Amino acid sequence: MIGEADLPVSNEDEVCNIIGRAVVDLSVTGQPVNKATLGLKLLSMADQDKDDERILLYWIARRAINQPQKFAEAGY
């Protein structure tokens, strides 16, 4: 049986998952969810990660939050 972790995930899906995790983390800790707090949370998450590819996805997620039109055009 194939689990969710075994399914291939696109970069766009992974960026959305990263943003979702950041939103949940902020919400659970009672912090406001806005561009500024999301950006800081994503920086913090990237700082704690050791995988270069995932760190790049955190930066892409930050860009998607700050410049959503460019993210949509890039087709991540």
TrEMBL record:
Domain of life: Bacteria
Entry protein name: Fumarase D
Highest classification ranks of the organism: Bacteria, Pseudomonadati, Pseudomonadota, Gammaproteobacteria, Enterobacterales
